[in-house]
Amino acid sequence: KTIKLTSDNTVILNGPVDSKSVSDVIEKARQLDSEEESKEPIYLFLYTPGGSIQDGIALIETLQSLNRPVHTISFNSASMGFEIVQGLGHRYVLKGATLMSHKAYANGVSGEYG
Predict the structure, then answer these.
(1) Is the distance from CB of 11 to CB of 43 less than 8 angstroms?
(2) At what angle do helices 53-64 and 19-35 cross, to 10 degrees?
(3) pLDDT tens-digit profile of 18-75?
(4) For the whole prediction, is pTM greater than 0.85?
(5) How confident is the model over 58-72, as pLDDT tens digits?
(6) Has 71 been annotated as catalytic?
(7) Which candidate in 23, 65, 102, 110 is catalytic?
(8) Which of 36, 49, 62, 90 has its CA 20 to 30 A from that of 69?
(9) Distances from the Cα of 9 to the Cαs of 16, 39, 40, 41, 102, in angstroms?
(10) Is there a catalytic annotation at residue 102?
(11) Which among 74, 79, 101, 110 is annotated as catalytic?
């Protein structure tokens, strides 16, 4: 499938999942969602080593609540980035991409993200 990424349908998470990057993605996604009446998807392009579990969960929940579906395109989605891919719509993975998952570890607590 060929997907044309434009400024009207694409949000980029480039770097760690943290409060700043998540806030930027949410702001842009909400802007795109409010400007477009169609149900065409928003594409979240991911190049992230992962990061904050709490911020990642907030991102997933917010993007799931939009009127437009959010699909992911991964070049590098590790750790919490992988969980974001799992938590949203259709998943596209570029040739040569890296997806990496592991058990969560934060503040001395480890386990699995449900």
Answers:
(1) yes
(2) 10
(3) 999 999 999 999 999 998 677 899 999 999 999 999 999 999 999 999 999 999 999 9
(4) yes
(5) 999 999 999 999 999
(6) no
(7) 102
(8) 49
(9) 22, 11, 8, 7, 30
(10) yes
(11) 79
